[in-house]
Amino acid sequence: MYSKVGNYQRKVYIAGVGCTRFCDILDTPGVTGVTEGELFAQAAIDAMEDAGIKAKDINALIHGQLWSAIESDYLTCGAQMNKWVGMNGKPSMHHDEGCATGYVSVELAAQMVASGKYDIVLAGGVECANSHPIEGKPAHMRRPMGADAMAMGPMLDENVYTRHFGGRMGMDAFPSQYRLRNGLSIEEMDDTLNAIQIAARRNSAGNPRAYFQEDLETFAKKLGMSDMNKFMKSVFNPKVSEYIRKFGMELRTEGAAAAIVCSEEVAKSLKKMPIEILACTGATAEMGTPNVEEITTKEAIEELYAITGLCGDDIDLLMTNDFRIPSQLLTAEIAGYYPEGEGWKCFLNGDSAYDGRKPININGGRCAFGHAYAASGLADVFETVKQMRGESEGHQLPVPPKTVLVRGFGGGQNATAMILKA
Amino acid sequence: MKKYELFVKKWYENLEEGKITAVKCNECGTVEFPPVYVCRDCSGTDMEWIEISGNAKILDIMDVKYMSSSISVSEMQGSTGGTSNGVSKEDSRPAVIQLEEGPMLNTRIYGVNSTNKEELWEKLPLDCKAFIVQKDGFKTVGFMYEGEEE
After folding, report:
1. In this structure, what DSSP letter does residue A387 have?
2. Cβ within 8 Å of residue A138, ≥6 positions away
3. What is the DSSP code (8-state) at residue A108?
4. Does B34 lie at the interface with A, CB-CB under 8 angstroms?
5. Could you tell me which of A29, A85, A36, A31 has the C-alpha nearest to residue A62?
6. Least CB-CB distance to B106: which of A158, A164, A242?
7. What percent of chain A is modeled with pLDDT above 70?
8. Which CATH code fits A12-139+251-269?
9. For chain A, which residues make up each domain, given as ranges?
10. What one-character-per-residue DSSP string does A156-208 give?
11. pLDDT the model gives residue A154
């Protein structure tokens, strides 16, 4: 391990969570016209009410947003959020670790509470990843976000120092190497990734906050196809890279999520079952590093298990950022949740679905629930806490999980891992 | 106060002079490309500029068409031109390469396209060569597969 990580100085809990629906602002009736501030506040207020506290009880705020400079007209956006949630004048900080932001928000809040500096911290993330402010117009007037606004073109090969050296191996390097390592044919790898996609959409079906609330079998039937094997390899789900098909790519959406992180004393005084944050770890490598997701995920999870004394057999539910669907396979095996080299068979057996033997991403994950970048990690924490309490609307696991591993990954370089314990 | 050399500016200025450069750690000999202040192996900060040979090995190649379910690489390439030094990005693929001097990196390899990608992948590792790419107002580095030696 690269770093030495010790236990928290005092126990830390999540007392409340909130999450908006992940959708397109411009295309969703009742949502069109919402601004980042309102989205953030909706999730934050839901989290406060869930915990049974008010803004005046909270000591500090952490705000995460990835594309604040592109998709938002806010200057020092964290401070704007203070005002939206009734915390004007209190300490706040804004941060961005790409798609890992929401997971890092929870870790930062946990550190602030564990140190004894604060008793209650609000961690929240918001992202309007499909629309863009219109210059000179009020914040509720937005336009669709296109390739020009994403400003990602130059990242493809000339930004040697600010992003990477032009190669985007992250999507396919892992499935390619996994296939060769474990002797899978190209078709077996394709079937495995398709099985993950099908399970992800089964998991998001019935989830009122998910972008897709319909499973792929139903979707296929509407298109006149009942053979799922044929459907998953049809023109409706084309390969977008060597291994990954369209349904296995992130679904960019807009939304917000939040969590109330607090001390043991506070948690035990509140009305809801407190969920303990046993430990959080992280590892970062620059995106130009070959196999960056595997390297950093291994580091983060090894540290997590070293601190907690847990192993894969102790985990009841795995949540992992899967903006490329192979990330589920990568994380499940590194975490020891699925057996090394055999994980692909678990997915083919349907183990990752809500009614499977070992579920993964019970909210549907980034390809089905949706991906509102900085908010996604907190949406995973929201789902985890709700499942542990037995409160998930429309898609509760029959046996609430007691020990959950949440792995974050984002920006092509930051991996995080945390254990939540009921 | 210690005066730091501006590595990024120097790296690009060297390219204008036709030199592809890296830095070598004077404490352990590790080469960093592109140049950075601190050695990844020994944490040393005494770095010496070197001109690299440009010789490298292609370790892996991938065929990526889209960045996300909604925006494609070609759309984004369209927003910034879509060519490098007259070489179409259609004629390049994401790759892992290793420089003769040691560093490994994710990058793009030119001279690989949908026609020859599969055949080349079977033959990995293959030789490639760094080349200087003229962009709009500056130069950068690309890597080219030039075919197998006769």
Report:
1. H
2. none
3. H
4. yes
5. A85
6. A164
7. 93
8. 3.40.47.10
9. 12-139+251-269
10. GTT-TTTT-BB--GGGTHHHHHHHHHHT--HHHHHHHHHHHHHHHHHHHTT-T
11. 39
CB A74 within 8 A of CB A68: yes
CB-side exposure of A10: number of CA atoms within 13 Å? 15
CA A17/CA A14 separation, integer angstroms: 8
Ranges of beta strands (E only) in chain B are 21-25, 31-32, 47-51, 55-61, 83-84, 87-88, 92-99, 104-110, 126-134, 139-144
CB contact under 8 A, B96 and A290: yes
Cα–Cα distances in Å, from A376 out to A156, A310, A370, B136?
Answer: 24, 25, 8, 36
Q: What is the pLDDT of residue A152?
A: 45
Residues B97-124: what's their mean pLDDT?
A: 90
B64: pLDDT confidence band, cut at 50, 70 and 90?
A: low
Taking CB atoms and an 8 Å cutoff, what residues of chain A touch B75?
A: 147
Q: How many CA atoms lie within 13 A of B127 on its CB side?
A: 9
**Residue B54: HSE in the Cβ half-sphere, 13 Å Cα cutoff:** 14
Helix (H, G, I), strand (E, B) or coil at A293: helix
* Average pLDDT score over residue span A327-346: 98
Residues of A in contact with B135 (CB under 8 A): 158
Check pLDDT > 90 for residue A288: no
Q: Residue B96: closest CA among chain A residues belongs to which residue?
A: A290
ipTM: 0.80
Q: pLDDT confidence of A79, banded at 50, 70, 90?
A: confident
**Cβ contacts of B141 on chain A, cutoff 8 Å:** 160, 165
Cβ of B62 within 8 Å of Cβ of A290? The answer is no
Tell the residue number behind the tokens 């001109």, with chain if given: B51
Alpha-carbon gap: A413 to the closest alpha carbon of chain B (Å): 13
- Of A310, A315, A307, A306, residue with least CA distance to A384: A315
SS3 (DSSP) at B125: coil
